[in-house]
Amino acid sequence: MxxxxxxxxxxxxxxxxxxxxxxxxxxDTMLLATVVxxxxxxxxxxxxxxxxxxxxxxxATGRIPGxxxxxxxxxxxxxxxxxxxxxxxxxxxxxxxxxxxTQVAISLISADKDIMPDALAGLAASAAIAVSDIPFNGxxxxxxxxxxxxxxxxxxxxxxLENATLEFIVxxxxxxxxxxxxxxxxxxxxxxxxxxAFAHEAIKKQVAAQVELANLVGKTVKREYNHEPExxxxxxxxxxxxxxxxxxxxxxxxxxxxxxxxxxxxxxEFRATMPEELDDDTAFLFKKYxxxxxxxxxxxxxxxxxxxxxxxDVRTVRPIWSEVDYLPAxxxxxxxxxxxxxxxxxxxxGAKDDEQMIDGAFINGYNKFILHYNFPAFSTGEVRPNRGxxxxxxxxxxxxxxxxxxxxxxxxxxxxxxxxxxxxxxxxGSSSMATVCAGTLALLDAGVxxxxxxxxxxxxxxxxxxxxxxxxxxxxxxxxxxxxxMDFKVTGTEKGIVACQMDLKINGLKWEVLTQxxxxxxEARLHILGEMTxxxxxxxxxxxxxxxxxxxxxIDKEFIGAVIGPGGKIIQEMQRETGATISIEEVDNKxxxxxxxxxxxxxxxxxxxxxxxxxxxxxxxTYEGKVKSIMPFGAFVEIMPGKDGLLHISEIDWKRLETxxxxxxxxxxxxxxxxxxxxxxxxxxSRKALLPxxxxxxxxxxxxxxxxxxxxxxxQE
Length: 717
Known about the structure:
8-stranded antiparallel β-sheet, alpha+beta
């Protein structure tokens, strides 16, 4: 790769029955990528049925999976996200008329724990297609670009990313960029373009290597196929009869469902002129050609008149309204509505025990910021069963999570585990960006001290290669996403960009167009941010009254075991008796203790007990102790858990005590002062030192026989 990094691509040894198989190796990291595509397409299919699955084998990192079965199960969210990255890079490069079932499988079979496999998965997948006979307008590749200590780096090590100010996965061919996704720390638009261009240079090298590999194995001729029958007479008839009507509906600025119904009526009118029974090919072509009419009409409306489906011009953002504290029992909540897109978002503040455990082959640990995105069928007026979050929900939620993560307070300032849940109630374009906006409002409502509010916008592109015309669209509708050439989501604060996700469906995006899109996105982001700050502009001064409270303590490492107790006995007893939740971990040779409860009394009780255990006795301090045992010469008093001292009989009272009988009984509480600690650690206690000293009694004068004062003698002063 020109920077000391060597990547090897090989084929012909493994998985030889697949249409294409490649092993990618960098250091100890190895990926096996395979591709298989059906020889024929299913009838009536007018799209590419492509599935991409990335899976990490636990053996690759010398680990055994968790769970009852102890085997790899369904893909984790992390694996789904990598699968999506590869899918989005590959899908636009297959021929538009290729509709055969195609499956790409990428497996991490060996792992170097400092080499991130996600940046290599796209290269491996494309190389597998390159050595097959499957039609593909590639090759493509993906790289990670990061800025570390002011320098742009390709595919940095995992250990280096902690100091990165930007981190993007960029995919593309030798000629064009096709996909970008990542996060940054409030960077400028110019910095983002510079990073993407830098990544493209590395992509060109990886594409050239794949071309060389394909030539070596002789896979330059691709299979023939015919997945789309043609009927030019039918196509011309549909265009002639419906184009003007569709254009008029597109120009009517009607609402989403009304527009869809009117388009359907036009299709039904033309269908009525056709024979009652249609063969499969004709029925397929009728749907395809009418869709092509809509595609052309909507795009031409934008390019020729600068007008969009809902009547807006290319720069206008739809009307916005928002509200916070909508859910009275939640710790924070917000409703954000932009046009026909609406998100209801809640924030829950939890303890350390609520952290999300990540048990992956490559990535494992704990996550204290969680964002879940839900997209129910009713949000688009549809009926479909709820089968849990799909890949789209995982991807949209991840983009929103990346955006908000950048502005969260540091861990030292925020002891909470935070869960944000975004439920999309209406959707017509960019519900992930609505989630970012609603998430910001809900976090501010919850009293989370964000560094700055974040807003997001989805940008689109309509272009015509023949005429060179193009239009960049702010705040795209769902139809504009479907019929357009680009879906470019950008989130940021007033200072700069914090996350982005871009997908291109065309070749030849010029750098000046990308720069213009980013500048137009900034204008829209700041407009939305201004609307949001009318609702709430800063975090609430305090958490909600019903929100739980957390107190964090630092104790010496030596007391961690004492707080936990044998088998967890002490900490479990404290939790049971106080009602608080207590967690403890060692960080930098210190014990970090978090006490979590929904009322102050429980926290104060638990904190007092922990301090008593983790404090060192100090000479001269006063303690309330408990009598543990009684001896003839005094009593042993526990002044701290596990720390006893001797209260000698002579230190109990100012008056002389002849016996300990009846003075104390075991379990009595007694206030004592610590007088001394000897070299063996034995503590000397006194109760007498805390009692008022009785007045000194004067002795009566001693008379002599003659009434004179006695002469000083032995034993007299």
